[in-house]
């Protein structure tokens, strides 16, 4: 067994290396590792150690390469250089790229860069046409006559095969930009350099490449994007502004801030320069033969704006507004005036209007039928139309020259150049009363606002005076009143105002409860509650109703008299109440209770020479006449007195009821006796008549028997 073990061990110490295989052997005595390449047979000694099993040599196929880390140092004959101990010398930390060659073994310490994801043997990079590799130098070296420094970048353009170097890193693959028709490529300089066209570019400078085709940007160029061309038609133009002084594509020098217009007459398509800013697209302005416009700050023949000037342009024509130009009122139609129309004009500067010189501020009118295009020296203030008025309609007109206000009624009227409509203001209470049907408002009950359209203040104020009513108007300019009796229509003159009547209302009467524009002449009635006291100190509440009317002629003096007392209802009720209180105070309760109507009527109407109560009570101040008084109720204000009066009234009613019942019963018995007597008498009469009829029958029977006997005989 020991012999077999020794035999196997001896056989494992013998290594047969095939062609293009190698091993690394460590000499434990000298601590030196050497590389053995086959074909050969190697017998391991006791102080030697084989570090790994035989490995194939590294074979690099054509157009491939590999990267070696810690490569060995070689002499001029490409043989590895060893130190004094026989160890192969390495460039530790460095790398080496090896291209197509005979298979080689890795020296001790050399590492083939690569792992499972990254194949150690790599294909050479083929750069196609219109592509390039962006390279960066990581250490200084010299390539032919060109010296490269660390940090330098350059392009390796195709079509070509790129041979990698340790001193160079591939940053990225750059593809050419395809510039289509009506498109430009916008670039920016990363550093100062001279471009392909031989133009020196500064850092940050931008420019456009307009030539169609493929363009491969240089390493100093940064692609910002593509710029599309603007298509210019007969209806569109471009408004441009220079952001920096430059010379445009038309060879014209532009200054920073300058603005200009490009139309289809300049070019069919336009690619904005990097120093051109497109402010907007300008649409064409088209005028028909019935239109015109006024251009402010127009551009002159020198291409500059004539600030402060205006120019009128009439159709038919089409044009673009240049920078700085603007329309005063847009596109306007020619003013066409009918027979009943006119326009009010004002001169803003001196000019010759035909044969008439016009001064600034002068106003005049053009009346129809006509067509008119206002020149730039004229401002159209307004367009006026004749106001058609019925015979019961009117307007207020103010003359701006004299300040006089007048009313125009019942005709079609067109304002002159020095006239305007005047608004007549009325107090709020008058406005509210005009909106109500009869011009009257109860301040307590009528709380809802009237639903009426707002009044046109330029129209003459109208009010319908009802039948048997009167309205007082006061002219503050002439300082005299005007009274209108109904039925009639009141049309208020500019200096006239309504007289608002404040009349007492409710029961008992409260001042200023009813507001009214018209005074009703009656006949009408008013009710009131009065507290009176009898001579025996019984306090009573009287509910009275008065029938009244105004008895006056409609002359100027008589008409003014009815408005002499503002609150005629309150004065009437106070006067009547005073008379009633005086009369009741002289009577005791029992006497007043029995003769209340006569006492009140005598107190109010008075008694004539014959002791007869008069039939009316007249107020001479305003010709108001009370024709009748109705006592609706008499109630004591004291509760005990009211209860006693109620009991006495109930007792009187009960006595009256019983007496009426006895009289009715007696009358009923009398009628019953009379009916019985008539019945007995009728029975006797009927019996007599029956006996008479029986006697007649017997006579006829006897006569018949006699005739019968004679006949038998």
Automatic annotation (TrEMBL):
MVP repeats mapped onto the chain: 63-125, 129-180, 181-233, 234-288, 339-390
Top-level lineage group: Eukaryota
Q: Which InterPro entries match?
A: Band_7/SPFH_dom_sf (IPR036013), MVP (IPR039059), MVP_rep_dom (IPR041139), MVP_rep_sf (IPR043023), MVP_shoulder (IPR021870), Vault_2 (IPR041134), Vault_2_sf (IPR043179), Vault_3 (IPR040989)
Which UniProt keywords are given for this protein, alphabetically ordered?
Cytoplasm, Nucleus, Phosphoprotein, Repeat, Ribonucleoprotein
The Gene Ontology CC terms held by the record are: cytoplasm; nucleus; ribonucleoprotein complex
- Give the Major vault protein repeat domain ranges: 58-115, 125-165, 177-217, 230-272, 285-331, 336-375, 386-436, 460-521
| Record field: compositional bias (Basic and acidic residues) | 663-682
Q: Where's the Major vault protein shoulder domain?
A: 522-638
**Entry-linked Pfam families:** MVP_shoulder, Vault, Vault_2, Vault_3, Vault_4
Q: Where in the cell is it found?
A: Cytoplasm; Nucleus
Q: Which residues cross the membrane?
A: none
| Xref: PANTHER family | MAJOR VAULT PROTEIN
Q: How does it assemble?
A: The vault ribonucleoprotein particle is a huge (400 A x 670 A) cage structure of 12.9 MDa. It consists of a dimer of half-vaults, with each half-vault comprising 39 identical major vault protein (MVP) chains, PARP4 and one or more vault RNAs (vRNAs).
Primary role: Required for normal vault structure. Vaults are multi-subunit structures that may act as scaffolds for proteins involved in signal transduction. Vaults may also play a role in nucleo-cytoplasmic transport.
Q: What is this protein identified as?
A: Major vault protein
Q: Which species is listed as the source?
A: Neobodo designis (Flagellated protozoan)
């Amino acid at each position: 067994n020991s012999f077999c073990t020794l035999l196997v061990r001896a056989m494992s110490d013998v290594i047969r290396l095939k062609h293009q295989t190698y091993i690394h052997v460590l000499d434990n005595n000298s601590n030196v590792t050497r590389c053995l390449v086959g074909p050969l047979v190697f017998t391991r000694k006791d102080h030697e150690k084989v570090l790994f099993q035989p490995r194939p040599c590294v074979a690099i196929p054509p157009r491939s390469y590999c990267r070696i880390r810690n490569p060995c140092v070689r002499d001029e004959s490409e043989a590895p250089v060893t130190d004094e101990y026989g160890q192969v010398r390495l460039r530790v930390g460095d790398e080496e790229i090896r291209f197509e060659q005979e298979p080689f073994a890795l020296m001790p310490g050399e590492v083939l860069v690569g792992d499972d994801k990254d194949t150690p043997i790599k294909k050479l990079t083929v750069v196609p046409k219109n592509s390039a590799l962006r390279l960066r130098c990581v250490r200084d070296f010299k390539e032919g006559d060109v010296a490269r420094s660390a940090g330098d970048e350059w392009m390796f353009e195709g079509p070509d095969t790129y041979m990698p170097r340790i001193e160079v890193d591939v940053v990225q693959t750059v593809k050419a930009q395809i510039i289509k028709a009506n498109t430009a490529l916008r670039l920016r300089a990363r550093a100062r350099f001279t471009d392909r066209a031989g133009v020196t570019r500064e850092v940050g400078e931008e420019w456009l490449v307009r030539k169609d085709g493929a363009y491969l940007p240089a390493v100093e160029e940064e692609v910002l994007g593509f710029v599309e061309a603007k298509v210019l038609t007969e209806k569109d133009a471009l408004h441009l502004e220079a952001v920096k002084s430059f010379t445009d594509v038309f060879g014209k020098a532009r200054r920073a801030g300058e603005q200009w217009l490009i139309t289809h007459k300049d070019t069919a398509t336009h690619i904005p320069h990097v120093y051109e800013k497109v402010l907007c697209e300008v649409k064409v302005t088209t005028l028909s033969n019935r239109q015109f416009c006024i251009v402010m700050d127009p551009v002159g023949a020198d291409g500059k704006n004539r600030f402060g000037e205006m120019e009128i342009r009439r159709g038919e024509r089409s044009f673009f507004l240049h920078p700085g130009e603007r329309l005063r009122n847009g596109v306007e139609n020619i003013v066409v005036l009918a027979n009943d129309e006119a326009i009010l004009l004002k001169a803003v500067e001196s000019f010759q209007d035909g044969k008439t010189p016009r001064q600034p501020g002068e106003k005049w009118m053009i009346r129809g039928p006509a067509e008119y295009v206002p020149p730039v020296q004229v401002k159209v203030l307004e367009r006026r139309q004749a106001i058609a008025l019925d015979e019961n309609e009117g307007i207020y007109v103010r003359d701006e020259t004299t300040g006089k206000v007048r009313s125009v009624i019942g005709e079609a009227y067109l304002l002159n150049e020095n006239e305007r409509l005047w608004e007549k203001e009325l107090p709020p209470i008058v406005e509210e009363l005009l909106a109500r049907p009869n011009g009257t408002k109860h301040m307590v009950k009528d709380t809802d606002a009237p639903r009426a359209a707002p009044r046109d203040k330029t129209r003459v104020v109208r009010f319908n005076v009802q039948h048997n009513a009167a309205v007082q108007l006061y002219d503050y300019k002439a300082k005299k009143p005007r009274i209108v009796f109904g039925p009639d229509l009141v049309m208020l003159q500019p200096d006239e105002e309504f007289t608002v009547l404040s009349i007492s209302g409710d029961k008992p009467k409260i001042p200023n409860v009813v507001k009214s524009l018209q005074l009703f002449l009656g006949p009408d009635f008013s009710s009131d509650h009065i507290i009176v006291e009898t001579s025996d100190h019984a306090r009573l509440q009287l509910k009275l109703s008065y029938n009244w009317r105004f008895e006056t002629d409609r002359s100027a003096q008589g008409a003014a008299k009815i408005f002499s007392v503002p609150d005629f209802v309150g004065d009437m009720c106070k006067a009547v109440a005073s008379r009633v209180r005086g009369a009741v105070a002289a009577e005791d309760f029992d006497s007043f209770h029995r003769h209340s109507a006569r006492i009140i009527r005598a107190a109010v109407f008075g008694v004539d020479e014959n002791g007869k109560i008069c039939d009316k009570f007249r107020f001479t101040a305003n010709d108001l006449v009370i024709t009748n008084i109705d006592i609706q109720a008499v109630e004591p204000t004291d509760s005990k007195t009211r209860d006693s009066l109620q009991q006495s009234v109930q007792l009187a009613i009960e006595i009256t009821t019983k007496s009426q019942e006895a009289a009715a019963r007696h009358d009923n018995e009398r009628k019953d006796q009379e009916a019985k007597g008539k019945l007995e008498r009728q029975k006797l009469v009927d019996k007599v008549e029956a006996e008479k009829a029986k006697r007649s029958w017997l006579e006829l029977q006897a006569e018949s028997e006699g005739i019968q006997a004679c006949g038998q005989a």
